[in-house]
What does this fold into?
Amino acid sequence: MGEPKTWSITSFYRFLPLTDERVADLREAIEDRMHRDQLLGLIIVSPEGINGTLAGGHPQIESFETFLVERLRGEEIRFKRSESAEAPFHRVSVVIRQEIVGLKRPDLVPDSPVDRHLSPAEWHAWLASDRPRTVIDTRNRYETKIGKFAEAVDPDLPNFSSWADYAESGAVPKDVPVLIYCTGGIRCEKVLLDLRQRGYHDVYQLRDGILGYLAEFPNGFYEGECYVFDDRVAVDQNLQPTQRYATCPGCGLPADAERTCGRCGSQYVVCPDCEATWGPVCSKPCRDLYLRHGLPAEQTA
It folds into this structure.
């Protein structure tokens, strides 16, 4: 079949109880289907549900979505689509984990209460109004650095499992509605339940997350770009692969400072922290040479 000219990408999740037998069967069936249709990506299967992003030709992606709904016995799944000229993944990975999103709270099993999900249009209207609210970004700090909703509070989370530390700090007010959001909606499903357990009764999440909002409101109240967990690194306001950010060779996080390697002369991008510790080099091999021999003579002349 060969690689598609344009890669169609679908992201999805669904919380639903699965027995260990169904988890194993589902993992095997999905992996077989991906190999058959030359789809690439990462899918997590768990006793609490399924979560994944995969890419391939447009007909094959549509066929996979139909296949997945059938395998889950008609369960409703919201698929979020985007496109890329380059492959965002390079292998098939279907894994079994305890949770489909790593909050380390397998006891929190969302049932997707639609009355607490704001559509992108409802979310946009609320932000455009003077209705009281506190907007909170539930993503990691390296994600919020490259984009977030203009008025959102950034908890500065090093990772999602540290959400509890922030929630326990008392930083989230209880006297106004709390609006939470993340990349595609899955992290908010658990945060919403966590906040309810802590006595917050007026909490709403952005349905389909930033990706769903940008599909309807590019250049709206979201500012910057949105980090994604694949080789695109981020998507812009039109859900197109970023032209600004690339992966830092030191930490693997998004970076946009363009540099020329002092050892091999290639162009690369680097984040401020890694530039300070790695030196003027583009990769580990060049860093090893730099630490042993310094810069070439012509670079220091």
Observations:
- The mean pLDDT is 93.
- The longest helix spans residues 20-36.
- The two ends are 53 Å apart (CA to CA).
